[in-house]
Amino acid sequence: MKKKPTCLIAIYAFALFVLSCTTPKESATEETAIDSVAYSDTLQIQHDTLTVATPTKQIEKDTVLDNGARFIAGLEQLNQSSFNPLQNDSYWKDYKTSMDANWKKMYDNRLSKIQTWENTTFSKSIADSLTLFYPFSGPDFLHAFYLFPRAKTYVLAALEPIREVVPLDTISETQRDSFLDSLGSSLRDIFNKSYFITTHMEKDLKQVKGVLPPLYFFIERSGFELLSQKFITVDAAGNETEVKGNQIHWQKTPGVKLVIRHRESQEVKTVYYFSVSISNGGLKERASFVAFIKSHAPFNTFVKSASYLMHKEVFTEIKKIIITNSNHLFQDDTGIPYKYFKNKLEWSGQFYGEYVKPVSDFSSELYQPDLDSAYQAGGKKLLPFSLGYHWSTKKQNYMLFSKAKLNGDK
């Protein structure tokens, strides 16, 4: 029998010593608002019977942040906090009842169908974990997650502002009730139509102070907990830099970075939201944002209910960025015009749902005859949910364009 080298025996003894001396990290108190949860892949070094594991990293959870987000989402607290007594307020109870009912209705009528379709059909063509870029998104993490649940990072970009969220446990009951009422109003279009209406958002978000409250709502209701939040901007190279929350509105490229964890799977994801104009002029002034987006390439892109902005000359740059850097693009007809993918050998396409003329809110000139011909050619596939402007008729269309070869039988 071979002798084990002396150095190996020493390593083994040292490993046993370290393991015997290590104690679990204590949970922090509510005052510090931090709890730490071990995560990371464990690298194992094996030699004969010896296995040494590298130390696990730690994720620090901001429990005050998550407690506040649950309260905003109309979800009961999971631990003792300053929000527990506030759950006895009659207005919050009514708010919770209303949000529970709205969420259930939306889940039954839309989200569950998206979930099933994504799992049985969509994922067969786009099963990867690339970053998801969602321009013209507003605070709609909801549909981004349900359509792209395997993404590790989500980058949302729209005009809606970022502001610090007022601590709801420190304001008066009247102010708190007004906040919840405004938030409920801001969500009505998502519940009923699947998209935010800009004019409604402009009014509602003034009351709830920006996109963070609806973002919290969607994150918590989708089964996640908030681990951390940072207000950021990006430099010329696209690197993020943390800034103070009360100075976020001073930044040319204001952003927020949320680290979240799914409560069941324990999967950790990162959500970015940038409050920026992505018109040609806006991107010219924000080369740092362009650098940030390109640093995540290749990525997948999702576009819905985008007011046909990329049909206009003032949005050609964002269109180029998407076409150049996207591996997959999933969009309705309000996104990039079909002519940019038609007969392009580098792109494959699949067509879902039914293509009809734009709704009456938009010009009939936005109708795309070549896209209609593509749908009529017989290549369209079932879309078992409505997601976009045709919510009243359910005649919704979506297209998946990919630089990777797609399986047409899926």
Blueprint (SSEs and pairs):
Blueprint (H helix, E strand, L loop, with lengths): L5 H16 L12 E6 L4 E4 L2 E4 L3 E6 H10 L17 H37 L5 E4 L5 H7 L5 E6 L14 H14 L1 H6 L4 H11 L3 H10 L2 E11 L5 E3 L12 E8 L5 E8 L4 H6 L1 H9 L3 E5 L12 H10 E6 L16 E6 L15 H11 E2 L15 E6 L8
Parallel strand pairs: 5-6, 5-11, 6-10, 11-12, 13-14
Antiparallel strand pairs: 1-4, 2-3, 7-8, 7-9, 9-10, 12-15, 13-15
Helix pairs in contact: 3-5, 5-7
**Terminal residue distance:** 57 Å
- What value does the average pLDDT take? 84
Order of helices and strands: HEEEEHHEHEHHHHEEEEHHEHEEHEE
**How large is the count of helical segments?**
12
Identify the overall geometry: globular
**Structure classification:** alpha/beta
Order of neighbouring strands in the sheet with most strands: 8-7-9-10-6-5-11-12-15-13-14
The domain count comes to 2
Question: How much is the radius of gyration in Å?
Answer: 24 Å
Major sheet summary line: 11 strands, mixed
Strand content: 15-25%
How many distinct beta strands? 15
Range of helix content? 25-40%
Low-confidence stretches: 1-56
Structural notes for this entry:
The protein has 410 residues and is of the alpha/beta class. The chain folds into 2 domains: 6-59, no CATH class; 61-325, no CATH class. The protein has helices at 6-21, 63-72, 90-126, 141-147, 173-186, 188-193, 198-208, 212-221, 280-285, 287-295, 316-325, 369-379; strands at residues 34-39, 44-47, 50-53, 57-62, 132-135, 153-158, 224-234, 240-242, 255-262, 268-275, 299-303, 326-331, 348-353, 380-381, 397-402. Strands 8-7-9-10-6-5-11-12-15-13-14 form an 11-stranded mixed β-sheet. It has a two-stranded antiparallel ribbon with strand order 1-4. It has a two-stranded antiparallel ribbon with strand order 2-3. Helix 12 links the parallel strand 13 and strand 14 (380-381). Helix 3 packs parallel to helix 5 (173-186) and helix 5 packs antiparallel against helix 7 (198-208). The chain is globular, with a radius of gyration of 24 Å. The termini are far apart.
